[in-house]
Amino acid sequence: MDKLETAQRRATKTTPLEAMKGPKEEIVYLPCIYRNTGIDKPDYLATVDVNPKSASYSQVIHRLPMPNVKDELHHSGWNTCSSSFGDVSKKRNRLILPSLISSRIYVVDVGTDMRAPRLYKVCWR
């Protein structure tokens, strides 16, 4: 077994309880939508500080508006799953945001500045 395979096995979380023993998130990202509100603005990704020791704890610290209206951002996912934590060959540096109405998929760069993510790429068929 090589070093990479050993690191992957060590980093894999087999149960939710085991995953909870890992490092706690300090930032969370929330897709915010305007559908059926009467507001004709693009949806946005809110960055929220969830570090209890931070002066901006529980506050929205950044908003990243999408470039289009009427997307209806849906759930988000990482480019690499959390079971890869500790695997130096993989990074959770992109957040994938699919849209229900427009079929666009936004790829957001959260690796350059996790407190102020920026749009990396838009995929659309």
Automatic annotation (TrEMBL):
Domain of life: Eukaryota
Keyword Iron-sulfur part of the UniProt annotation: no
Keyword terms: Acetylation, Cytoplasm, Membrane, Nucleus, Oxidoreductase, Protein transport, Selenium, Transport
Keyword Transport attached: yes
GO BP term, pick one: protein transport
Gene Ontology CC terms: cytosol; membrane; nucleus
Pathway: Organosulfur degradation
Gene Ontology MF term list: methanethiol oxidase activity; selenium binding
Membrane disposition: Peripheral membrane protein
Annotated compartments: Nucleus; Cytoplasm, Cytosol; Membrane
Catalytic function, reaction form: methanethiol + O2 + H2O = hydrogen sulfide + formaldehyde + H2O2 + H(+)
E.C. code: 1.8.3.4
Family according to the record: Belongs to the selenium-binding protein family.
Function: Catalyzes the oxidation of methanethiol, an organosulfur compound known to be produced in substantial amounts by gut bacteria. Selenium-binding protein which may be involved in the sensing of reactive xenobiotics in the cytoplasm. May be involved in intra-Golgi protein transport.
Name of the protein in its database record: Methanethiol oxidase
Species this protein is from: Crocodylus porosus (Saltwater crocodile)
